[in-house]
Amino acid sequence: MSIKTDVENMNAMTLQGKWKEVLEKYYADDAVRKVAGLAPLVGREMIREQVEDFIKGCTEFTSFEIKAVAVDEENNVSMI
Question: Labelling 26: which of 1, 43, 57, 72 has CA 20 to 30 A away?
Answer without folding.
Answer: 57
